[in-house]
């Protein structure tokens, strides 16, 4: 009886030619007409409800299973559950273009943030590996310190007077050097050992070190043609001893304003892989016997070509992750004749930001003096003609008096 009532209720929805007793002519007409989508939906619902009622009727007579009662409201509810889902998908497809672009932008930002996180983790892993390579004796003598910047002053055995000229001008000494280090600024003269370890040169340096305590000794044999190797060893050693944001290399015949340098670096603190200095592209010298001769000149193209852009060797700096990169990959980093070219070559093909800061290569007075009076204190000053301050021992104090930032500047920087 339930089935009969259902068919009777659906009868207005079913074409008359489908009902029992329809004429043959009506049936033939039906066969020739296509069935609409709406009609198919009605038939499916009718079949579903009829089957449900039949099943419910069977349960009622066959055992304790509960009966199923289908009300007219159930049909409405079933249709209502289908409609919202379709509407939601249609709205998603037909959404405003600005909403879609907003989603794309947020997704892109999330990916960039994830990439930075992965980069930082890789850098930390590289630093950890580097520090793990220190011998137990080395690790026990040097506790790892947190710093903002490590400033390594490249020097040689024959440069005692140059070192003294810096100690008397821009480089703090004694208790002030220690206090500066507590602030997060480490300054050291960087030097290796002689070809005959324990010889006269090494003993003289040991004596100077005991007096001033301002050296970073490298496992490296000193020599002019070994500057690329020395640069590589310096960064590897520094990153293993100090956890710093930046590592600087400066020559011992250059005038440096430490406070101005720190403020300059602070502007790039949040960036990954920073390589900062005065960028240049000098000629590749193929003639033998001349200064800065490049034996591998043929790698740079035809005669007369220039090098790729790189920071000039008097002063440059790199961020922590680049120092760690040098340390981890030291055995396979190629060394050219000129150390500044070598450093620039190591970063080719990497995602490195080259910062060209001309305040790092001001001229000596009157150039740096005029800029200081105008409120633009230079980070570093030297003479291009001498690749440093000409006659630096005699002139360093003069340059410092004219172009120095003032004794209190370095103590006022906020790290």
UniProtKB/TrEMBL annotation:
PANTHER family: BETA-1,3-GALACTOSYLTRANSFERASE 8-RELATED, BETA-1,3-N-ACETYLGLUCOSAMINYLTRANSFERASE. One of its GO terms (molecular function) is galactosyltransferase activity. Its EC number is 2.4.1.-. Pathway: Protein modification; protein glycosylation. This is Hexosyltransferase. The chain crosses the membrane at residues 39-59. Its main location: Golgi. Signal peptide: none annotated.
């Amino acid at each position: 009886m339930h089935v009969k009532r259902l068919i009777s209720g659906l009868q207005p929805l079913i074409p008359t030619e489908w009902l029992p007793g329809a004429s043959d002519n009506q049936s033939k007409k039906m066969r020739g007409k296509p069935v609409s989508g709406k009609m198919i939906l009605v038939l499916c619902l009718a079949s579903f409800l009829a089957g449900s009622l039949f099943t419910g009727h069977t349960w009622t007579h066959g055992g304790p299973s509960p009966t199923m009662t289908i009300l007219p409201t159930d049909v409405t509810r079933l249709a209502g559950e289908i409609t919202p889902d379709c509407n939601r998908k249609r709205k998603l497809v037909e959404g405003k273009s600005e909403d879609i672009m907003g989603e794309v932008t947020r997704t892109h930002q999330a990916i960039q943030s994830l990439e930075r996180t992965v980069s930082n983790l890789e850098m930390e892993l590289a630093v950890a590996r580097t520090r793990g390579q220190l011998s137990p004796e080395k690790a026990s003598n040097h506790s790892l310190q947190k710093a903002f910047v490590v400033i390594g002053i490249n020097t040689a055995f024959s440069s005692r007077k140059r070192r003294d000229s810096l100690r008397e001008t821009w480089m703090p000494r004694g208790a002030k050097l220690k206090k500066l280090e507590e602030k997060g600024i480490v300054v050291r003269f960087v030097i290796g050992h002689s070809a005959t370890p324990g010889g006269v040169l090494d003993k003289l340096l040991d004596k100077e070190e005991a007096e001033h305590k301002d050296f970073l000794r490298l496992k490296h044999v000193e020599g002019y043609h070994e500057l690329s190797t020395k640069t590589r060893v310096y960064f590897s050693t520094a990153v293993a001893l100090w956890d710093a944001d930046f590592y600087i290399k400066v020559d011992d015949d250059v005038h440096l304003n430490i406070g101005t340098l720190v403020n300059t670096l602070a502007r790039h603190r949040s960036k990954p892989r920073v390589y900062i200095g005065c960028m240049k592209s000098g000629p590749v010298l193929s003639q033998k016997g001349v200064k800065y001769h490049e034996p591998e000149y043929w790698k740079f193209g035809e005669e007369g070509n220039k090098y790729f852009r790189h920071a000039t060797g008097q002063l440059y700096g790199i961020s922590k992750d680049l120092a760690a990169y040098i340390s981890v990959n030291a055995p396979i980093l190629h060394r050219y004749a000129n150390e500044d070219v070598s450093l620039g070559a190591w970063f080719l093909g990497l995602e490195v930001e080259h910062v060209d800061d001309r305040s790092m290569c001001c001229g000596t007075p009157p150039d740096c003096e005029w800029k200081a009076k105008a409120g633009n204190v230079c980070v570093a000053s030297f003479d291009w003609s001498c690749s440093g301050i000409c006659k630096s021992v005699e002139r360093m104090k003069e340059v410092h008096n004219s172009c120095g930032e003032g004794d209190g500047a370095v103590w006022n920087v906020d790290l």
